[in-house]
Every structure is written in structure tokens, then in C-alpha cells.
Amino acid sequence: MSRCRVEFYESLYSRSDALFELTDAMLCTDGPVKSLVELTLAVEHRRGHGAMYAALDKGWLQPRRLRRALADLPLPGAADGRIVLAADVCNWLRPDAPTSPDRLFCHVYGRGGRSSDQSVPGWPYSFVAALETGRTSWCALLDAVRLGPTDDAIAVTAAQLRDVVRRLIASGQWQPGSKAILIVLDAGYDAPRLADALCELPVEVMARLRSDRVMYQDAGPARSTPRGGRPRKHGAKFTLAQPDTWHRSDHVTTCDTARYGRPEARAWDRMHPKLQARSSWLDHEGELPTQHGTLIRLEVERLPG
User: Fold this and answer.
1) How far apart are CA 43 and CA 29, in angstroms?
2) Is 73 among the domain residues?
């Protein structure tokens, strides 16, 4: 921790003392931080509120040096020892700041169901964090980037993950022979596109799928026909919303748990989606890739609460 604080202080290029004390005040203040003025009352902040505003206005840090310092810290890991990275978007809602530049409409989930969802002006941030096994909300934040009005969220996430993985390799967190880094994503991400963008790195992409997705088996060995033509690329259809289209799973695992009863996990190997030259693949050069993966379905007896 001492080394991390030194690296953070040295990454502050201008107004370093004021920004450093402001960070300490934010970390040590009890309860949520609701205003900047309250931070000046913390014991860790020894300067007046004028110095704080001047530091936020004129101060600057070196993002690359800070990112390298975060990559050098000990990272949490999964039960098998591998590194698990999660990517997601977190919205900083700013509905009362009409002069803030590059605000976007951020989707906010309502408590009354899907009908109560709304869009609120704010700043969306794409972040990458390292996770650990177990029921905990602690994570190691490694990178954060604000999304602009013209940014492609998938392209930004791919660039973030590529940079984070390369920094982890350079710092010795991952070494040749270690298990691949697992990247966990929600259903809002295009997993085949991210897998294609990160194919040269030692990573495995695991993402949730919407219930309306359709997957396919391989077509199998090509058979000659009197008419000839191109061999098929896609085999039997696997529709997630239609169980009658599911073929026999390749793996089945069950275990006893205290919170979920007896869950069952079923897996189907070498499944792939049917990619089309539109949307995110519109500018792809050459033949569209066939992204094979393992389809996993988890079913539990009960949900806690």
C-alpha cells in the first residue's frame, strides 16, 4: 500500500499535494460523499476549499503511470488461481448539469418493473475490474474511461481489455503456462465481437446471453450432392427460448448448496452464432469468422429471498 501511494503521488503532474489530500479525504470520510465542500472538513484534507477547487480546475495526473501502478498491485483471483476481469458500464447521472459537455441519456432501471425504467442525462463510464471468488462486493478497479456521444461501447471495451491484459502481462501478473484470464460480461455486450477482437491474447470470454438468442451446431462433414455448391456452415438450430430444439448436452454437473438448493449446470460444446455482415460486422473485411464456444445453462431449485 505504501508503494502504491508513492506511485499515485508521483503520477500527479500538477497540484499534486492538494489532489493527494483530496483523494485521502474521499477514501477516509465516513458515509457517502455528497459534496466537495464536505471533503475539506475531513482531517486528511489540510487545505482550504479554495485550494481544492483550484486543484480540480488546474491539476493533472498521468493516466498511463497510474494505470501501470494499479496493474502492479496484488490482484484477487478465482478459486483455481486464475485472474477474472469484469467489464461493465456505470452511469454518473447529471440531470441538473445542462452545461456539462457530452452528456448522454443513461438507462436507469426502475423498481416497479421494466415499465418504470427511464433515461436520465449523465456520463456513462466503462470500467474494468478484477474479481475474486465468494459473496463479496470488493474488487480491484484497473481502468475507467468515459464514453462519448460518438464512441462505440464495444470498441472502447475491447481496447480497454486489450490494454489491461497487456499491462498485467508486462507486470508479471500473468505468465506463460498460466490459465487464461477469464473476462466476465453481461448480456448487453457482443461476446463474439469481443472474442474476435481479443483473439491474440490469452483470455477466455464468458458472457450472459439473452433468452431470445439462437445458436447453431457445426454442419458436420460436407457431403457431395448432384448440384454441388458450397458446403453448409451451420448445422442444427439451438433456440434458447424453445427447449424442444435443444439437443443432448455434452456435460451435466450437480451439487448441493445452502442458498440455491441443488443446482444443475448443463453444457453444450462447440456452439456458434450465425454472424451477418451488418451492425458491428458491417466493416469487417473478408469472410465472417465462426466463433465457437461452450453454451452453459444453470438452473437452481430456489433463489434466496
Assistant:
1) 9
2) yes
* Dihedrals phi, psi of 38, to nearest 5 degrees: -65, -30
Residue 225's pLDDT is 60
Residue 222 pLDDT: 64
- Which amino acid, one-letter code, is at 136? T
Q: What is the pLDDT of residue 233?
A: 80
Please report whether residue 258 resides in a domain: yes
Do 158 and 257 lie in one domain? The reply is no
Structural domain of residue 94, as residue ranges?
A: 65-206
How many independent structural domains does the chain possess?
Answer: 3
Of 10, 32, 61, which residue is a domain's last? 61
The answer to whether residue 228 is domain-embedded is no
> Which grid coordinates are listed for 270?
462447440
DSSP category for residue 174: S
Can you give the pLDDT at residue 112? 64
Which of 124, 137, 152, 132 is CA-nearest to residue 82? 132
* CA–CA separation, 65 and 55 (whole Å): 19
Whether 226 is in a domain gets the answer no
Q: Are the C-beta atoms of residues 79 and 179 closer than 8 Å to each other?
A: no
- So what's the pLDDT on residue 206? 96
SS3 category, 183: strand
Are 107 and 173 within one domain? yes
What residues of the chain score a pLDDT lower than 70?
Answer: 111-114, 222-229
Map 212-275 to HEC letters. CCEEEEECCCCCCCCCCCCCCCEEEEEECCCHHHCCCCCEEEECCECCCECCEEEEEEEEECCC
Q: Are residues 50 and 80 in the same domain?
A: no
